[in-house]
Automatic annotation (TrEMBL):
Entry keyword annotation includes Membrane: yes
Keywords, alphabetical: Coiled coil, Membrane, Transmembrane, Transmembrane helix
Protein name: Protein RFT1 homolog
Record field: compositional bias (Basic and acidic residues): 267-278
Coiled coil: 229-256
Species in which this protein is naturally found: Prorocentrum cordatum
Length: 292
């Protein structure tokens, strides 16, 4: 009978690849959506950097977009690039490569929902370590230290992915997701498996970008607007002229006071001479001059 305890336990078990072919094929057709989400977020940040650089002008200039993209990768986007370069490849490998020949394997829809929903938890070490280490170990550091930071964050990403696989498959999280999805229609199972990965990617990329913005204090000429740069140059030129004027006035004052300074020096020298002290009566007490 439906709803009995054996049926509930049976829902925990995967249906195998033969019972998943239709929904898995639909999921494979819509996998590109997650890349579209990532591309739109990256394009938004690059355009923001471009507008800061050009003050709203020539936003579609290819060279400016490339410069802004390089700046994004080197600064606020470094954590995002490291995470998705490692994690995205491993996600797709776990879903579409490993376990395809396993008759007891979960449907790819279950894998997608399980892995990506669990990723919201397992990627948090990347965020916390990025906030803690990026400013001290990456920003304004040498290329060697930056490479060590990138390697360390890549290792953390790989370790978090292994932990995610362990939680999903060994600790029964995939079975729990499978139970929930089995109670839904085919259309809703496909919709969830298609919608969850782009949603999670959007949340992760936004948090990683915010982490980079929090930690990054690099000074780049591309971020300085031309109007601001011209204003700073004008102020520096004004200060330079004022310093030259003060220097000239100082020289004039010295030249004007040279006679007075020489007079004071001459007077001081005379007062220190023995003849001056004798004329002023500067002799020891009890001393009397004897006459012949």
């Amino acid at each position: 009978m439906p709803g009995t305890a054996p049926d509930a336990w049976a829902a925990l078990l995967p249906r195998g690849p033969q019972g998943c072919s239709q929904e898995d094929a639909a999921l494979a057709r819509w996998t590109f959506l997650r890349y579209c989400v990532l591309g739109l977020i990256l394009l938004w940040r690059v355009c923001r950097l471009r507008r800061k650089a050009e003050d709203g002008e020539a936003q579609c200039c290819l060279k400016g977009i490339l410069d802004a993209s390089c700046l994004f990768v080197r600064t606020e986007g470094v954590g995002l690039v490291i995470y998705f370069s490692v994690s995205a490849v491993m996600d797709n490998a776990a879903i579409f490569v490993f376990g395809r020949g396993d008759e007891a394997g979960f449907c790819e829809t279950v894998k997608a929902v399980s892995l990506y929903s669990m990723a919201l938890v397992t990627f948090l070490p990347n965020v916390l370590l990025g906030i803690r280490l990026q400013e001290t170990c990456y920003d304004k550091r040498s290329c060697g230290v930056k490479c060590v930071f990138i390697l360390f964050m890549a290792i953390i990403t790989a370790v978090s992915f292994v932990v995610r696989l362990w939680l999903v498959y060994n600790e029964g999280y995939a079975s729990l997701v499978n139970l929930r999805l089995e109670s839904l229609s085919l259309r809703w199972r496909v919709a969830l498996s298609v919608g969850v990965p782009p949603l999670v990617d959007g949340i992760q990329s936004t948090m990683l970008i915010l982490t980079g913005q929090h930690s990054c204090h690099l000074t780049c000429p591309l971020l300085i607007k031309p109007s601001v740069a011209q204003h700073l140059l004008a102020e520096m030129e004004t200060i330079k002229k004022q310093m030259m004027t003060l220097e000239k006035q100082n020289k004039q004052l010295i030249e004007m006071n040279e006679p007075l300074i020489e007079k004071l020096n001459t007077r001081t020298t005379k007062e220190k001479s023995p003849d001056a002290r004798k004329s002023a009566g500067c002799f020891p007490t009890g001393f009397t001059m004897s006459t012949g």
